[in-house]
């Protein structure tokens, strides 16, 4: 209020007033002079830029340009990553928090440490971050930078201390989630596929452990190649070579079959007993042509294998 009063005082004192209260005259003959215009009034401004600051008081609506999603089914927390490097955490009413990566790199993928109050973020600058969500203001505990390879996919099995990281070169690295350092165990692309196959399978687009055996890792390559890797024996159990590029893979909860979504708009279903060919191929959005075949559609970027008791 003191600053405001000084401004008002300057406004009132700049207009000359005679003792009688009427405007001052400009000549002895009593002819009144023109009153000063607003532009002629000089105000002594004492407010400066350091007296003001911009602060965000509210966030409204869904995060702008979302790029990744993750959900903790135990704590019922949703994490949304954005192209500008932000992460929004949403829970029950009143639970709403925003975190920001200093680099501003887009968030490619999010992985919750389920029911442990922690979150792994993979960013477009090929850096992994481990966030601690237990404190009032979430903060980064560890960061791991990949210098020679670009990160394309991450997978963290439930209650596992090993984080699997696929790269653009087709290799799969394993990170210890506790120390957040590379374990040294690397599944090279040329060992995952047959040695006689010289064609590069493309980037890793999927990683998941088998629901029946956590020691078996399913690796999906962009070209359509799928490998079931035995982590203990360090060899491939089987390999699948499919003609269409893969975008995502999802397991049936029993672990006996899985489903793939492809670039031609098809879904292929595979049985673990016979991996020579898919036991079913469907085009959910394709029309049937005159010859009985389904027409190709736009790629299905994500598929989730959901089942219900009834």
Automatic annotation (TrEMBL):
Entry keyword Acyltransferase: no
BP GO terms, sorted: exocytosis; Golgi to plasma membrane transport
Pfam families xrefs: WD40 (PF00400)
Alphabetic keyword roster: Exocytosis
Domain of life of the organism encoding this protein: Eukaryota
Gene Ontology molecular functions: GTPase activator activity; myosin II binding; syntaxin binding
Any one GO CC term of the record: plasma membrane
Residue ranges the record marks as coiled coil: none
Cross-referenced SUPFAM superfamilies: WD40 repeat-like (SSF50978)
InterPro entries given in the database record: WD40/YVTN_repeat-like_dom_sf (IPR015943), WD40_repeat_dom_sf (IPR036322), WD40_rpt (IPR001680)
Ranges annotated as biased composition (Low complexity): 19-36
Region Disordered, residue ranges: 1-36
Family as reported in the entry's similarity comment: Belongs to the WD repeat L(2)GL family.
Name of protein: Syntaxin-binding protein 5-like
Classification lineage: Eukaryota, Metazoa, Chordata, Craniata, Vertebrata
